[in-house]
Amino acid sequence: MSEQQASPRVRQAMQRAVRLASRGHGLVEPNPMVGCVLLDENDRMISEGFHTRLGAAHAEVEALRAAGSRARGATAVITLEPCNHQGRTGPCTDALLQAGVRRVFYAVADPFPRAAGGAQRLRAAGMEVHQLRSSAAEELALPFLKRVLTRLPWITVKWAASIDGRIALSSKASKWISGERARRMVHRERGRVDAVMTGIGTVLADDPRLNARDVSIRRVAMRVVYDPLAHTPPQCAMLARAEDGRVAILVLPAALRDDEVAARAHALERAGATLVDLGTEGQVTPACAALFELGVSTMLVEAGGGLVGKLFAEQLVDEIFTFIGPIVIGDANAISSVRGLRTDAMTDAVHARLIAVRRRGDDALLHYRCTSLQSLGLQ
Ligand code: AOF
Ligand code: ZN
């Protein structure tokens, strides 16, 4: 019944609210990115607002503030159901009622137990409330929904491949498959996530710093190394610069019973690293759960095919950014972006959906997502 009530202007306002909300990327997490547009009785825009950073006013409050007394009788178009709780800020349900807002359209129901129930509360108070589904708003909310429902970070895997899908020559040489603009985009992303993860192979081969360089930094990412047997050199570039962010080493708990492994692990701790346990079989999921509890809400993975394959096998990959550089390698021994999956039938393959295709210099950027409302059990 409710979707018919939304005029084209209301639908446009929802698109606008999504675009506004996305400005909060890297600033609001673990909170959701949220946008709000207020419309008058003719569905013309009065004001807009979005959640600008963690702990700051919610989107609804920003839009109400900008509208002042014009909010009376207005329609609020919001990407997420208004919160119904006293958290870092007061309940948006109260703010909307006090301002005299007449109607609310929200796109995504809030599953966060403490904040949920806003729509019901507003209806009980006599307001007209509609859910107006929007695929853009659902994509916007997915990282937040995943975190609330699974208590795991939102995981983005990135790789640069040749046209024929290889990330390096058989000699492992990979400089450079993607161009300068694509590499810059990766640094921008590093400055917006809570963690950047790689594998021990990459650490030993490249000694990377894994920090964000020459871009504006919205948050300083922890550097995470999948390193079951603690082979990371304590004098590596990552541990040499504490100001670049914390370093976590994911180790196999059983391996620490070996004196040599334990000695290497302790040397890493003395060099400033935090040790985090993998599962007993080396699974990454328990380590991701532990990282989430340490405050990691988003993680970018820049690793070889082995670790990436492991993450796929454990269904940990939410999103893929792949850059396709304009070269063909054409050698069966050249290195693939993902290894180790068993795909006997097409149905065993990982199925992703294409979100965006962009051009960055001579590279194509393909953005895919694996996680959906459906995979989270929300529809
Ligand atoms: C936001 N921004 O614009 C809306 C949110 O800790 P708090 O008080 O900021 O509350 C966070 C919760 O409020 C969040 O998990 C979500 O359930 C709800 N709505 N949050 O950060 C917003 N509208
Ligand atoms: Zn709120």
Total number of domains: 2
Q: Strand order within the widest sheet?
A: 11-10-9-8-12-6-13-16-15
Main structural class: alpha/beta
Q: Which stretches are poorly predicted, pLDDT < 50 over at least 5 residues? A: none
What is the molecular shape?
Answer: elongated
Full CATH superfamily name of the largest domain: Dihydrofolate Reductase, subunit A
* Small molecules in complex: ligand AOF, zinc ion
Query: Main sheet?
Result: 9 strands, mixed
Q: Total helix count?
A: 11
What is the average per-residue confidence, as pLDDT, rounded to a whole number?
96
Task: Based on the coordinates given, report the CATH architecture of the largest domain.
Answer: 3-Layer(aba) Sandwich
Strand content: 15-25%
Q: Quickly name the level 1 CATH class of the largest domain.
A: Alpha Beta
Report how far the terminal alpha carbons are from each other. 18 Å
Order of helices and strands: HEEHEHEHEHEEHEHEHEHEHEHEEEE
Name the helicity range: 25-40%
CATH topology of the largest domain: the name is Dihydrofolate Reductase, subunit A
Radius of gyration: 23 Å
**What's the total number of strands?**
16
Describe the structure.
- With 379 residues, this protein is of the alpha/beta class.
- It is built from eleven helices and 16 strands.
- The chain has helices at residues 8-21, 59-67, 92-99, 118-124, 135-150, 180-190, 200-206, 237-240, 259-270, 285-293, 305-313; strands at 35-39, 45-50, 75-80, 103-108, 128-131, 154-161, 166-168, 195-199, 222-226, 247-251, 274-277, 298-301, 319-324, 335-336, 353-360, 363-369.
- It has a nine-stranded mixed β-sheet with strand order 11-10-9-8-12-6-13-16-15, sandwiched between helices. It has a five-stranded mixed β-sheet with strand order 2-1-3-4-5, with helices on both faces.
- The mean pLDDT is 96.
- The structure holds ligand AOF and zinc ion (ZN).
